[in-house]
Amino acid sequence: MARVTFNEQRCKSCELCVSVCPQGIIFLADEINLKGFHPARVTEMDKCTGCAFCARMCPDQVIEVFAEGGKPVHA
Fold first, then answer.
1. By CB count within 10 A, which of 38, 40, 48, 68 is most buried?
2. Which residue has the higher pLDDT, 2 or 37?
3. What are the pLDDT digits (tens) for 41-65?
């Protein structure tokens, strides 16, 4: 199963990753990070296909995508 991780403390809630996720599984958290933003998170990791659209779109490089088996996907 593919998975995606976010460095939530660096996320600035721009929502670009939310807009490009074809699975619609990324959302902004209710909690805020140390910078005062609502960081992006994945709701249903089992639906992640590892497409890395989110990571390519992120202007702050806070997203890492891993393919099945844990191999990093280069965005």
1. 40
2. 37
3. 998 999 999 999 999 999 999 999 9
Contact 33, 16 (CB under 8 A): no
For the chain, list the strands marked E by DSSP. 3-6, 26-28, 40-42, 63-66, 72-73
Cβ contacts of 71 within 8 Å, gap of 6 or more: none
Sketch the domain layout of the chain as residue ranges.
Answer: 3-73
DSSP classification of residue 35: T
Does this model's pTM top 0.70? My answer is yes
Residue 66's contacts (CB-CB under 8 Å, 6 or more residues apart) are 2, 3, 4, 5, 50, 72, 73
Cα-atom radius of gyration of the chain, to the nearest Å?
Answer: 11
| Phi, psi of 55, rounded to the nearest 5 degrees | -65, -40
